[in-house]
Amino acid sequence: MKYIFSWILVAGCTFQVVAQNNDVLTVSGNLTVEGIPPIQASIVNDVQPYTESRSASFQSWHATERKMLISTRFANTAQMHMVAQPLGSRKQLTFFSESPAGATFNPVHGNYFLFTKDVGGNEFTNLFRYDIETGKSIQLTKDNRAQNGGAIFNQQGSLIVYTSTRRNGTDREVFMMDPTQPASDKLLLSLKGGGWRVADWSYDGNILMLSQYISVNESNIWLYNLSTKDLKQWLPPNKQRGVYQPLQMSKDGTAFYMLTNAEGEFKKPVRVDIQTGNQTILVSA
After folding, report:
1. CATH code of the domain covering residue 80
2. Do 170 and 60 share a domain, yes or no?
3. Residue 14 DSSP code
4. Is 25 part of any domain?
């Protein structure tokens, strides 16, 4: 097994190897190979279908047209592509040296989408807006040492809320912005810890549902009232600790949906009445 793994490892490095006598490979550069027999050049062709395979991941649906965004790799980085019909060809939209991620269309007009991107894999992400008509990307946040992301639109598609660590690089804050006017960016809420994200924005625009990740065995749900500035943790009647993973709020704003393992080993979808705290398990199996 050790020798098989070594052959695969070296074969995977053959983009930087030099052929000798057109049939045997030797590694170039700083990599030192010891105790491995000569590798036939034909192995390059044999393993290339596996080392060069790629996938495509769905990103977002267009709001008014039958189009979707996908992320797939060409050359060394994954980029955003538009697909206009089933089995249709992909149209590449972004051409960055780093891979953009987390693309989401404006939910009303679909005239632009948002995404995040870092520089050189440093994981300090900023928000960007890609305009469909012009084909240009506009940077919305400009923090060199912070993580910005997790944007959620309001129902009108006019505003977003997102989280950022720009305050101190560790604790997250929630900001609001009109993506077409980056200067409108303003702070809504300062939080402690890095495990926060905005899960949903109520239909009436007044409540934010937040998730607080603590560990694989524990997470909490919080509700923030934009009018009263009140942040309140939702707790089950028995205050049992566990995984409470928020999904979305009901259209009338009286309930929210979550996944939880509080009642057993596996997570189940549950509807929670905000006023009474009553829980309805939607799938009991």
Report:
1. 2.120.10.30
2. yes
3. G
4. yes
The residue to which tokens 């008509």 are assigned: 133
Spatial CA neighbour of 82 closest among 110, 107, 109:
110
Q: Do 128 and 183 have their domain in common? A: yes
Whether residue 20 is found in the same domain as residue 79: no
pLDDT in tens, 30-51: 878 888 888 888 888 888 888 8
Task: Tell me the residue range of the domain where 86 lies.
Answer: 56-194
- Residue 113, judged by CB atoms within 10 A of its CB (0-12, 13-18, 19+), counts as buried
pLDDT tens-digit series, residues 106-148: 999 999 999 999 999 999 999 999 999 999 999 999 999 999 9
pLDDT band (50, 70, 90) for residue 22: low
**First CA to last CA distance, the chain:** 42
Q: CB neighbours of 152 closer than 8 A, spacing ≥ 6?
A: 160, 161, 162, 198, 199, 200, 201
131 and 63 co-located in one domain: yes
Q: Which of 229, 68, 159 is nearest to 151 (CA)?
A: 159
